[in-house]
Design goal:
Elements: E1 5-8, H1 17-29, H2 43-46, H3 54-61, H4 66-69, H5 78-87, E2 91-96, H6 103-112, E3 120-122, H7 134-139, E4 142-147, E5 161-165, E6 184-186, H8 189-197
Helix pairs in contact: 5-8
Length: 199
């Protein structure tokens, strides 16, 4: 029997990119950044960090390699939410706007954390009229696509339920006329899961 598929974004839905960003900063510069705004959508706004130039920017970027993408911590309740979905009969596939060379690192990360996810599709990131994730989500026959970045719903087929995780509101791109692209909105993955399984 073919199980229905739910496509899940990683950073902001399954994994805490903000904490990983702070850890990368500490590895690069020797000190953990202070928190400025816990409700900030973007990590550079959440943490009290300066804008980087030249070699310091290069030094920080060097931290975003295999180690980074294989050790991002989980968001609260995300692992349990995925197990609930899996136990309810769904196959879960991670569709991430990540460079393809880090696809295996992301899968290793999810497996190490015991997410019930056996496949990662890395689409890369492109700001276009059609989301780079749209083709991947349709190709796997997803019934639902869960993401925390509204522009990634651009071009997704209308028969796919698009669930938007709102999370931190300050500076969020999840506003405006494109909100019509979201079939439903949720504070986090556990909130989506409770909603979806209670239908």
């Amino acid at each position: 029997m073919v199980r229905p598929v739910i496509a899940l974004d990683a950073d902001g839905v399954l994994l805490d990119y903000h904490l990983a960003y702070a850890a990368a900063w500490e590895r690069a510069f020797g000190s953990h950044p202070e928190e400025r705004d816990p409700q900030a959508y973007w990590p550079m706004d959440r943490w009290k960090v300066p804008k980087l130039r030249l070699w310091r920017r290069s030094r920080f970027r060097s931290e975003f390699g295999e180690l980074f993408w294989s050790t991002v911590p989980p968001l609260p309740g995300a692992i349990e939410a995925c197990h609930r979905l899996r136990d309810a009969g769904y196959d879960l596939v991670c569709v991430s706007a990540l460079e393809q060379r880090y696809e295996a690192a992301r899968l290793h990360n999810l497996r190490a954390l015991e997410f019930p996810i056996e496949r990662v599709i890395a689409t890369g990131h492109h700001e276009m009229a059609r989301s780079p994730k749209a083709d991947a989500v349709e190709a796997i026959g997803a019934e639902v696509f869960v993401d925390d970045y509204l522009p990634y719903f651009r071009g997704v087929a209308s028969h796919i339920h698009t669930a938007l995780v709102l999370r931190a509101p300050n500076g969020s791109p999840n506003i405006g006329p494109e909100m019509v692209l979201a079939s439903s909105t949720h504070q986090d993955l556990p909130d989506f899961t409770a909603h979806w399984l209670s239908r």
